[in-house]
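Archive transcription. Copying these from loose printouts into the bound notebook so they stop getting lost. Printout 1 of 2:
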Amino acid sequence: MTTNPKIEKPPPAYLAQEPLPEAMFSSAGTVSITRNMVREAEAKARNSQRGRFRYCLHRSVEESVQEMVLAITDHVYFRPHIHPMGKSESYHIMSGALSVFVFDDQGNITERHDLDDDNLENPLVLRFNDPVWHLPVAITDIAVYHEVYKGPFERADDVIFAEWAPDETDTEKCRRYLDDLRNGSAGG
């Protein structure tokens, strides 16, 4: 006669990870995101000082695939950046509308990709196979998207910020830059 081993209850599916108060990392072996979780991410982003929240589907920055569901408000600014060769990245809109701007080395807009879950003509998914300067911007009051990045992720090696774009600490310049991007008047 064999005895069944005690089955322990799995840990909560997502755990907050310091020092990222706006992120929760998966602790589960199988991960899913429900529509309710998308709504919860939207609420957390709206209540966040920086207007953003992310569920990390991966367990750590050391994993070879970095998958996140991000909710960002329309005032969120990520400084335009580029990733090194061999680090692909993709965006998949889940709720709202997101524009992903692509720039040349001088900061001139070369492409604008409007991802929209409510427009049959706009793409839902965008992938960068090669390094490009880029910046995602919420066009609706809030946008939720699934981002996939080839890990592992080491900020110092994986993100090069554009010197021609405002620093994230200058909120007024960032606000004007986002406004200019949305109305088509930004560029080198």
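Printout 2 of 2:
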Amino acid sequence: MQSDTVQACLDTVEDRRKGIITTSQATMRLVRLLPDPTSIHALQRYTEKLDEIERLHEHALRRGIQHRSTDTDRGQEQLVRSLRDQQIIRESKEPDNREHEPSVNEDPHNGPPSHEGVISRKRGPDESLFAFNHPSNVRHPIDPKLELTLKLRNNYALDLKMSKQAVLGFPRCPLLPDSLWNDVLLDRYVDFDKILTGYYALESDHRETQSFGNLDISLNTGGSSGKMSKEIRIYGEWSIAYARYTRAVVFVYPHRNRELEDYEEYLAGQFAAYPDIADQFKIINFDKAIRIRVRQSNDLMLTDIARFQDIISYHLINPKTSRPNDAKRQKLTANDDIPICRRWNTGRCVAATCSYLHICHHCNGKHQAKDCTTERPGAKKD
């Protein structure tokens, strides 16, 4: 076969690979280039290449629809092109002397691999160029438990969806709202208000996640999304949430059990220092600030209290620390700190440990508003 004819056939296959022409057009062009009956074997080989390219295009299209991953498709095309060119060159040199030649996807040593075998992985960054890996930026070795936490977290993050499914499928999986498991697995801050809300919930918190390429969309399919959210106000509510949080964290990070126990003991002492439940919001805010700080760092533990002096000063020593959701709550108060109980003023509050003031919201007296005899501006007289 003349070299010009071989090159023309290779160009035809290349045009089909690029999508410039269709498979039928490429076939007709090959037939015109190889009209001699003695070239039937070469024609058959080139048409087989066209069939292989067609199958690869269909496979790439299906993957593109499923994953929207153009980088993967580009890597696949480049690899297939290289394998195909090598194979066609071999066929062009020895078109009639071999009974069997490997296909585009066939490995000469291990036989035909699967489609996944020819799909290249997405190219990662050059870690040697990470500026933060410079020796001058390396700090002292961290606690071995922190190193283990980072190792487990990175492993869960490799396939977060699969990791969550494995946890939820375990027979003794701890009770926790479905939407919070990702935060636990990734060692992120967990909102205790959501744990408490789930504790008293009357509806399921099940969520379904649909993936579109690198985008995950989570939908609540367990019930109404407009359910009321509970807010932790006192030590008893915090204890309920913390107990469930601890069981979930220890389930996936078992080496943190002692750390969580010591932190609970420390917080219990702080709550004991504020026996008035009206002041316990300070400890609740203090706990939130610590857990946010720790989860934002890779070298802190909950028990590193000496490194939280600024948080202690702001939330426990600062007299102007605000209550949770003060901006959202309408106050009727005798002072600037504690709201007056509306339910008590109408005779409906029976709580033994109410967080609000039990005084009249008309005159601040010790009686209920329904029994108040103080004249009020605009009140009708009999």
